[in-house]
Design goal:
about 45% helix, binds guanosine-5'-diphosphate, alpha+beta
């Protein structure tokens, strides 16, 4: 079993798609291990996306990620990181495969409805960034 980290982003929360996205996640065999609805602070969003700090879209991305509530998720299944990236679809919804979460719900390359960790090492860091050991181990 592997864990991955995910965020239902502000566009998807605003558009009323939390339930639909969680249903797709569960239908694809993921167990929800921890879940918290919150609004990210500027410093939380900047820290989370620090790897992109030199990109031209960084400020816009941070503004977007802090514009409204998000849902933070710890998800578990076999091969969770890779499988969630498949279920989520390509970063740009224009390139995302039919039936993927981003194809179904994303508004644009930035407002793309969901985050999913890109590697097991990143997943471990991102889970630690937002969840405590108690959240992840108690269930
Ligand atoms: P991901 O792993 O598929 O989420 O993609 P990246 O790690 O490359 O980018 C992180 C996030 O930044 C994406 O999910 C988008 O919300 C946003 N993003 C990526 N590329 C662009 C871009 O070219 N323009 C804008 N405005 N946002 C982008």
């Amino acid at each position: 079993m592997e864990k991955t980290f995910s965020i239902i982003k502000p566009d998807a929360v605003k558009n009323g798609n939390i339930g639909k996205i969680l249903a797709i996640v569960e239908e694809n065999g993921f167990r929800i291990v921890a879940m918290r609805m919150t609004k990210l602070s500027k410093s939380q969003a900047e820290g989370f996306y620090a790897v992109h700090s030199e990109r031209p879209f960084f400020n816009s991305l941070v503004t977007f990620m802090t514009e409204g509530p998000v849902v933070l998720l710890a998800l578990e299944r076999e091969d969770a990181v890779k499988k969630l990236r498949e279920v989520m679809g390509a970063t740009n919804p224009a390139n995302a495969a039919d039936g993927t979460i981003r194809k179904l719900f994303a508004e644009s390359i930035e407002r793309n409805s969901m985050h999913g960790s890109d590697a097991p090492e990143t997943a471990a860091e991102e889970l630690k960034y937002f969840f405590t050991g108690v959240d992840l181990n108690q269930l």
